[in-house]
């Protein structure tokens, strides 16, 4: 099939390459000027109806502005795919607004990172049946066998990806805490070796563990050149918000999110409060800065 790709970063560029490698015709637009099109309007002109335009750009204002511009450029029957990490509520709203112009908006949660070009991308897709069917040849090319599903109506794809990323936070934090205990123990443990053997037969084996082994192999057991500063891209927060809204207990995901916040503090003010209180009620000594 022929489609347009907006955004040629680490994800969009590799997805374009994978699609082209399997015979799809992909026109591209990127604000850096590296695409085949000079503008969104130029990109739309390169496509034949029913047009399909796939966005792999940052969530929030960049996606909002691009969707609005495309809705003004496309025609009834055309479809926009948002493959970024948009909030599912925004995706539902945008789909409703686009539908008023006869234009479809499909939300595709995409997982695979920089390895997706070779291994394929897990795709969690939300939208109307007819619109999803139009894009299915591309979905099947991008995903490995068994790695694509039409999970529900508008918003369902990004909702599923949101929870996926919340789970990812919890898994990463569990590995982080466990390996810190190993690192701090009385034993001179080879963490690379341990991560390596856990990849085979262990109940905690996973792709994340394989990536951890690779990191320890590259950076050394102490990871001395890696700063312990961990960002969050939004999905973990949204997952916790939804858990609260639905009264679903999610202590592991919540704790993993707060651990990321803690990683960004040079020194915790809360820890200073704790130290001051221990001195006040128990006479415990405090350390001076």
Describe the structure.
The protein is α/β, with parallel strands linked by helices. It is built from 12 helices and 7 strands. The chain has helices spanning 10-21, 40-45, 61-73, 88-99, 116-119, 129-142, 156-184, 191-198, 207-219, 235-245, 251-263, 269-282; strands at 2-6, 25-29, 52-55, 79-82, 104-111, 122-126, 148-152. The chain has a 7-stranded mixed beta sheet with strand order 2-1-3-4-5-6-7, sandwiched between helices. Helix 6 links the parallel strand 6 and strand 7 (148-152).
Would you report the number of β strands?
7
What kind of sheet is the major sheet?
Answer: 7 strands, mixed
Query: How many helices?
Result: 12
Intertermini distance: 64 Å
Structural topology:
Layout: E1 2-6, H1 10-21, E2 25-29, H2 40-45, E3 52-55, H3 61-73, E4 79-82, H4 88-99, E5 104-111, H5 116-119, E6 122-126, H6 129-142, E7 148-152, H7 156-184, H8 191-198, H9 207-219, H10 235-245, H11 251-263, H12 269-282
Parallel strand pairs: 1-2, 1-3, 3-4, 4-5, 6-7
Antiparallel strand pairs: 5-6
Which tags fit this structure?
289 residues; elongated; 7-stranded mixed sheet; alpha/beta; single chain; 7 strands
Quick recap of the structure?
This protein has 289 residues and is an alpha/beta fold. Helices cover 52% and strands 12% of the residues. It is built from twelve helices and seven strands.
């Amino acid at each position: 099939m022929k489609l347009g790709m907006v955004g040629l970063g680490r994800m969009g560029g590799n997805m374009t390459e994978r699609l082209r490698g399997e015979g799809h015709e992909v026109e591209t637009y990127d604000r850096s000027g590296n695409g085949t099109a000079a503008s969104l309007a130029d990109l739309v002109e390169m496509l034949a109806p029913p047009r399909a335009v796939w966005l792999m750009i940052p969530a929030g204002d960049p996606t909002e502005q691009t969707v609005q511009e495309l809705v003004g450029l496309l025609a009834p029957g055309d479809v926009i795919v948002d493959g970024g990490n948009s909030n599912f509520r925004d995706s539902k709203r945008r789909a409703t607004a686009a539908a008023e112009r006869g234009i479809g908006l499909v939300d595709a949660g995409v997982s695979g990172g920089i390895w997706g070009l070779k291994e394929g991308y897990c795709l969690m897709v939300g939208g109307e049946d007819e619109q999803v069917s139009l894009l299915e040849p591309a979905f099947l090319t991008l995903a490995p066998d068994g790695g694509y599903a039409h999970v529900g109506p508008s918003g369902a794809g990004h909702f599923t990806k949101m929870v996926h990323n919340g789970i990812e936070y919890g898994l990463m934090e569990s590995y982080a805490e466990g390996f810190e205990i190993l690192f701090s123990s009385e034993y001179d443990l080879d963490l690379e070796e341990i991560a390596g053997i856990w990849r085979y037969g262990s109940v905690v084996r996973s792709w994340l563990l394989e990536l951890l082994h690779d990191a320890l192999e590259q950076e050394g057991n102490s990871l001395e050149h890696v700063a312990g500063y961990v960002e969050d891209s939004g999905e973990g927060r949204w997952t916790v918000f939804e858990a609260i809204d639905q009264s679903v207990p999610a202590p592991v995901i919540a704790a993993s999110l707060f651990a990321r916040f803690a990683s960004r503090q040079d020194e915790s003010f809360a820890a200073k409060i704790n130290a001051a209180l221990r001195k006040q009620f128990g006479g415990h000594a405090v350390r001076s800065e």
